[in-house]
Predict the structure.
Amino acid sequence: MTAATGWSIVIVLGAIWIGLGYLWGRKARDSEGFMLAGRNVGLSLGAATAMATWVTSNTTMVAPILALEKGVWGMLAYASVSFGLLLFAPLAARIQRLLPHGFTSGDFFRLRYGRAGWAVFLLITLVYSVTWLVTMASAGGKLLEVLGNIEFARGMTLIMVVCVLYTLFGGLYAVIGTDFIQSLVILLGIVAIGGTVAMNVDFTAAYGHLETHQPSLLAVMFPAALLAIFNNMLFGFGEVFHNNVWWSRAYAMRRGVASKAFLLSGLLWFPIPIASGFLALMAGPLAVNVTDTGQVGPQVAEHVLKGAGFGVMAGVLILVVLFCSMASSIDSLLAATSDLLVKDIYTGLLGGELSDRSFRKVAAVAIVAVGFVAWAFSLSNLPLDEILFSSGGLVASLIWPIIAGLYWKRCNRVLVIAGMIAGSVSGFLSYWFVETYIGALVGAFVSMVLTVAARHVRPSDFPRAPAS
Amino acid sequence: MCGPPISRAPPLRDMFPELFVHILVVLGLVWTAAGALLLIILLIRDYKNGKLW
């Protein structure tokens, strides 16, 4: 694909997202409209936005890498990340009931665990969210460089500018609306690409090749892959349970819709790593020369699609699907992280006053600031993928405090906060000094022990949530 | 007398059978396609009932 084609695709898609963002953004007349789409989102848009946000470049790019390294279990391990969405379904209904006027996940931590617990949460979630956003922006730049022949810095800047603009114009209305279209593009694109590959390979011959040359990819007993399943699951639980990306959607959905929407989104998400991951299993049988394991999915897809007569359209199709998978996560992270800055930092910690009129200005500054920080870090060449993966212990240490805060009436808050800190530290150190696959496991376990102890050692009632 | 051939590959019973892998891949693709169709149906239903957002 020429650079001109690459630029054309991204500019056309970007113009569509910005135009729709502007159009839908006119519905946002106050802060609730801008941040939470009026708290009236229905099942179809709710399920699609939850699913599309969870389909990141990792889903479409890392699932094939896991399949290439860990075979069938690698695909299933990545699919298990969907359990986070499934288990968030009952939590979403509970969140709506306990905090009917809530805006962010920070509201919950402040009310349940006081300023100390709130501060620990904000530190963890801001580090995690910004790092996740930076890895998305970097992945977008690399993707445009590989598939669209656009230089990294220019491609990454283009993606960030597009996402910042439509989030700025339309807030959560724009994010949810574009997420629906992006969901369909992702799902149908994966079916088109995966279906073409499936129809163009002799499956028996491919299986025979794997059986002879890469038998471990088909092994039922693959301890590292089995460990990866549990680690990925806990990482997914921690990420979905704590992040404002999901809480803002729970607040935004109409009463009675949230739990169904999250359940449906998990069911829709589950097969995607399998459908995209199996491309990597075909790399060996199809004799695709994988020069960069990070690009194994697109390389196999392009190889087969070109062989099937797609020509230049092969690259176009892959680029559109991957661009949508990144944009759907970047816009959500921009909106949810800037909400935290506005509601928790500006008005909560700094005591700033906001009217509906001044809100839009502050929200705009926050969105641009988050986008700028992500853009600047993306140019820094820091090993942010490693930082993101090593934060599994941090987010996993928030799983039990969230469950306890949502379902228990009383606990020892100091012990729970100690569990968050001890789980984060032990999970982080385990990732770096013991084994990468146990970071989330250790973080969740340490936090669980202290949270369970908090129920029995000098517990006290949680403060009641204010009526509004 | 010689014993069975020695292979570095795991014994067959320890590997996912071909049928399982084939069904897994086909199911993954069909399930993904069904998801897209379901979203479209739900969107039309919500739109008709005035419950999009």
